[in-house]
Fold:
Amino acid sequence: MDFLFILISIIIGYCLGSVSFSIIVSKLAYKGDVREHGSGNAGATNMARVYGWKGALIVLLADFSKCVLAMFLAEIIANTQNLYLGNICKAVAGGACLVGHAFPLFFKFKGGKGISVGAGLALICDWRVLLIILGVFLIVFFISKIVSLSSVCAAIALLSCGLIFYFTGVFDGAITLPEMILCVSAPVLVIWLHRQNISRLIKGQEKKLTFKK
Structure:
């Protein structure tokens, strides 16, 4: 029975994650496909480069919300059995949503790099984790103006928070074991999705963010 709830959570997370709002918004509002411009990535950063900050903000909030919704639904459904299963299913749904966002079923498996979704799962794990990774992102971006560098640093911060919160018991056990595993595994995928950006960063070829006017 537990496996059934976990499977349902995977389906919920992956299907919601596969709803790529950058592609939907670019096609409906701008009559184009964001993947055919800029970096070719289906994410909020490329939306900002190609279509401007308004479209990017809509995409960021929508992608953030789909992860929150996926984790919330999975937890509510599984909590009908027991609270710990709800915690497991919540974490599973968050991970599946990130995978769906990166490899969307509905858009030929070509999606985004998971930063907005990562922020959503950080919030559901613990709001203080979200504040920390958001702070890291903004500080690095203010200094460098490079989104990929800021994103990788935020991913490392998420991984660090998961480990520190869980193993030190800070904030009275705010992070459970399933959430800790999610906070460690999600950044690994995000960093892997940024592997080309990291290569360009090492070579000093990564571009700073400029908005389309």
